[in-house]
Amino acid sequence: MSPHDAICAGLSGRLLCFTHAGGAGERFQDWISGFAPVLDVRSITLPGRGALSDHAPVESWPSLIAAVVTRVLPLTDRPYALFGHSFGALLAYETARALGAKGRPPNLLVVAGRAPQVAAQGTKISGLPRAAFLKELEAIDGTPVEVLSNANLMDRALPALRADFTLLERYDADGAENHRPLDCPILAVGSDNDLQVPFGSVLGWRHRTRLRFECRLFTGDHFFPFSNPDFADSLFDYVDGSLNEHSKDFHRAG
User: Fold this and answer.
1) In angstroms, rounded to a whole number, what is the distance separating the alpha carbons of residues 36 and 41?
2) Which of 130, 140, 186, 226 reaches 20 to 30 Å from 104, CA-CA?
């Protein structure tokens, strides 16, 4: 057992987080430190990034989900929730579907992004020439400035960035319309000034669960989970309360 696992051994639940396209796991560092010792927060690293930078980025949804589930499954040994922002919301949703098929559905799915059956709007950018692609990334404002402004860092990050947007553009929204609703509650969150994800497309998550659905509106833009100072506390309270209920059942079953 690692020191981190030893510290977290008595925690009531776990929160597994997926960032937006082009995002980094450091986005969740404040949550990792701020939610401990009550919640064990983990940022899920994708192939081609961070500790997995020696792996080739994946541009196929089935291949990506298989890789993610392999990494996540050992972390489902206690009540747990998934959180995803933007592209990460779709990834968290598909991970929830795959884990449910293995008999280990999350106890809660929290999503900050459009519902999967809602087609993405806007220009496809994954195949643009480098300069045009970087200009679009700068406009989206989701990639750290220190990466965009550093040619060497950008050379290393570019394949993973293109892979993220390729996956986003290839997502089968029409197919998602026919998905079986999840066997877990969903909390969908949106903001009042998100020009990329209108709040109406967030409400569509209500069709993706057969259990409890709740939706909350926050102040902010597309990156409100990280810029709105009230969001983290609200998320913590909701997830902790939800997982505490499941923790009682989990321990009784054990």
Assistant:
1) 8
2) 226
Alpha-carbon distance 49 to 43, whole Å?
12
Helix (H) or strand (E) holding 241, with range, is: helix 231-253
| Residue listed under structure tokens 């792996």 | 55
SS3 label, residue 199: helix
Which secondary-structure segment (H or E) carries 40? Answer: strand 39-43
pTM: 0.90
Token pair in block for residue 65: 């989900």
Q: Are 17 and 71 in contact (CB under 8 A)?
A: no
Q: How far apart are the first and last CA of the chain?
A: 21
pLDDT digits (tens, 9 = 90+) for 52-111: 778 889 999 999 999 999 999 999 999 999 999 999 999 999 999 999 999 999 999 999
Structure token digits, residue 150: 């550093």
Cβ atoms of 27 and 223 within 8 Å: the answer is no
**Is 175 strand, coil or helix?**
helix
Which positions are annotated as active-site residues? 86
CB-CB contact of 60 with 31 (8 Å): no
**110 φ/ψ angles, rounded to the nearest 5 degrees:** -115, 125
Give me the mean pLDDT over the 199-212 stretch.
Answer: 96
Token pair, residue 183, equals 């066997």
Determine the Cα–Cα distance for residues 127 and 137; give it in Å rounded to an integer.
13
Residue type, 125: I
Reduce the DSSP state of residue 72 to 3 states and report it: helix
DSSP 209: B
